[in-house]
Every structure is written in structure tokens, then in C-alpha cells.
Design goal:
4-stranded antiparallel β-sheet, alpha+beta, Ribosomal Protein S5, domain 2, 7-stranded mixed β-sheet, binds (3R)-3-hydroxy-3-methyl-5-(phosphonooxy)pentanoic acid
């Protein structure tokens, strides 16, 4: 039992989502990535999580949590949080010493088909580490440790603690890189990438038929896995070189290849599955045609789902507006979420 005179307290963090440019797909051991990844941190799509804590009467064998998501109890989310807290008790013994009241909300519409594990797990990890610091009177928050803890909740969450660009996983691109935590990466990156836009086209709000967790697991027996991991290593070097040179065309070509490769890997899994919808492909075709005709640097990427992230520099925003209007026809309820590259989490309390 921690020996402290504990007055109850509360912390709160707002943490953003991120979009991978080179994708993490496949893991091993304790949430270690099979290949490195790089992502833009977003700014508008974020989760705000508060954690109130007080000393538990007795040491808990399982974390004691009251949880509400947007004011409502969500037993499935709560179960995930309790499982996560129990799993990090070695890193943070306080999870068994305290009682927690956790409240969380997303900035993006609930059930919009946008995955929130990166923003929610990074917000929670930051809260837990802040509590650790409050109790042990540490000085500055160790953001690398926050990334490590976030990774144990959701791999991609490790990247959300930094903006605007983060790398997770061992890669030749940086000697500082690690499989255990993400690092911020801005070494000589052209300033055009500081103000990139990401419009998220909500093709479908439906929950995915195959979760990311199951998708990662299916990489274990995917016959193309080893080639894929090598390709991702190669793409890391290529995309960083393109971003340093400000070469948008090269950047876009890699990003789009990564998105289609991710979905090809799903289609080549055992059992195979597809997460793209007919409108995903139709909208991609419209985007590519627009790019070719108008010579506008606008590119797409995909998460593990049907929705499209449309990436372009702020200087192209006026031209892309017409494309966006047209692409609304392919979106459920004509929904597009306007986002852009951001600078990382904010501590609110
Ligand atoms: O962090 P997870 O387990 O939700 O996996 C994320 C996987 C992708 O979003 C498809 C790629 C990535 O690197 O974010």
C-alpha cells in the first residue's frame, strides 16, 4: 500500500486522434509493433478524459472504476478500461491503491465510425501518469512514459501524445525510435506539413465487422506478412525523405499505397475480409480524377474501416472545397469532419 496522506484529487486531459501515413498492422508480445509507423497528430478529433481519485479503503485486487462516457454508463468501455488498468499495475501500482471515477467524451459525433482508441487511451494514460506525479510529487510529466503507457492500451495511442508528427517502432529513420514508445519527429520536415488538412469522409457510421485487435492477430498467419513488414520499413525511409524535400507527389504516392496495402492485407487474411464499402472506392476514384484534372495535391488514406481521410496542404484548401462538396454525396448523412494537423494533448486540470 502506498504510504501517503492522500487528499482526493482530479486530473483531466484532452488528447487527439492521429492518422497513420505508414501503417502499423500486426503486433507481437505485449503490444509490440511488427513494423514502424508514422502519423500526423490531429487537432479537432479528440477525447477529453477526467479521472477523479481517492485512496481505496483496502488494496483492490482489480481496479475500482466508475465510468461514464458522454454522461452514460457503457459497460463494454468500462470493462476495457478495467482490463487496461489491471494490465499496467506493474508500471503504475497506484491502480490498485485508488478508487477512480472516470468520465470521457469525444469531440466527434458518437458512432460516426471514427475509431477513438488512439485519443481515448492516450488521454487516459496521461491522466494516470499525472496522478502518479501528483502523488509522488514528480516535476515535469515524462511524456515518453505516457506514450509507453498509452501503447499498452492501444498501439496507435502511443503516437497521439506528440504533435504534429510522431514515429512509433524501431526504424532506421531515427536512432531514438523504439518499439516501446513513440517519439516526436520533425527533423528537417518541410514546413508545408505543419499546416496539413485532414477531412474525414464518413462513408459509413456502422461499427466495423472485424475489429483492429482481430485484424492485427490475423497478420500472424498472413502469407504476405514478412514482405509487408519489409515494405513498411522501406516506406518509412521514403516518406521521411519526401517530407524533408517537400515532395508532395512522392508523399501522396506512398500514403495511398499504404492505405491500399492495409486493405489488401485484410483481403488476404485467413479468413479474408473487406472493410471498404462501394462508396469508399467510388469516392477514391473521384478524388484521383480531380487531382489529375486540376493538378491539386490532394491524397487519401484509410484507417482500418471504410472512411476516407483526405490529406492536402492548406494552400490547396480553396480548390479542394469543390471536391468536398461533390464527395459529400458518397458520405453517410453527407458527413465530413474537418480536421487538420495539431500539436498534441492539453492538460485541462
Ligand atoms: O492501435 P490499434 O490497435 O487501434 O491499431 C491501429 C491500426 C491502424 O489504424 C490501421 C494503423 C495505425 O498505425 O494507426
Amino acid at each position: 500500500m502506498i504510504d501517503f496522506n492522500l487528499t482526493p484529487g482530479k486530473v483531466e486531459w484532452q488528447s487527439p486522434s492521429n492518422i497513420a501515413l505508414v501503417k502499423y498492422w500486426g503486433k507481437h508480445g505485449r503490444q509490440l509493433p511488427s513494423n514502424p509507423s508514422i502519423s500526423f497528430t490531429l487537432s479537432q478529433a479528440h477525447t477529453t478524459t477526467s479521472v477523479a481519485y481517492k485512496k481505496a479503503e483496502n488494496k483492490n485486487s482489480s481496479a475500482q472504476v466508475d465510468f461514464k462516457f458522454e454522461g452514460e454508463e457503457k459497460p463494454d468501455f468500462k470493462e476495457k478500461i478495467v482490463r487496461y488498468l489491471n494490465s499496467i499495475s506493474e508500471e503504475l501500482p497506484l491502480v490498485h491503491e485508488l478508487d477512480f471515477v472516470i468520465e470521457s467524451q469525444n469531440s466527434f459525433p458518437h458512432s460516426s465510425g471514427i475509431a477513438s482508441s488512439a485519443s481515448s487511451m492516450s488521454a487516459l494514460a496521461l491522466c494516470l501518469l499525472s496522478i502518479h506525479n501528483n502523488l509522488y510529487d514528480n516535476k515535469a510529466l515524462d511524456i515518453q512514459k505516457a506514450s509507453h503507457l498509452a501503447r499498452l492500451g492501444s498501439g496507435s495511442a502511443s503516437r497521439s501524445v506528440y504533435g504534429p508528427l510522431a514515429i512509433w517502432g524501431d526504424t532506421d529513420v531515427s536512432t531514438l525510435s523504439s518499439n516501446k514508445y513513440a517519439i516526436p519527429y520533425m527533423d528537417s520536415i518541410d514546413s508545408v506539413f505543419n499546416s496539413f488538412y485532414d477531412d474525414i469522409l464518413i462513408i459509413s457510421k456502422n461499427e466495423k465487422a472485424v475489429s483492429s485487435r482481430a485484424g492485427h492477430a490475423l497478420m500472424e498467419n498472413n502469407p504476405y506478412a514478412l514482405n509487408r513488414f519489409e515494405q513498411a520499413h522501406r516506406h518509412m525511409g521514403e516518406i521521411v525523405a519526401a517530407m524533408q524535400a517537400g515532395d508532395l507527389e512522392k508523399f501522396g504516392a506512398i500514403v495511398e499505397k499504404e492505405a491500399l496495402t492495409l486493405h489488401a492485407l485484410m483481403m488476404a487474411s485467413e479468413p479474408p475480409y473487406m472493410l471498404m464499402e462501394p462508396n469508399t472506392i467510388a469516392a477514391i476514384r473521384v478524388l484521383q480524377e480531380f487531382r489529375k484534372e486540376k493538378s491539386v495535391p490532394v491524397y487519401f488514406t484509410l484507417d482500418a474501416g471504410p472512411n476516407i481521410h483526405m490529406l492536402y496542404p492548406s494552400s490547396a484548401a480553396a480548390q479542394v472545397a469543390a471536391l468536398k462538396e461533390e464527395l459529400k454525396n458518397y458520405c453517410q448523412d453527407r458527413l465530413i469532419i474537418n480536421d487538420k494537423v495539431g500539436s498534441g494533448p492539453i492538460q485541462m486540470i
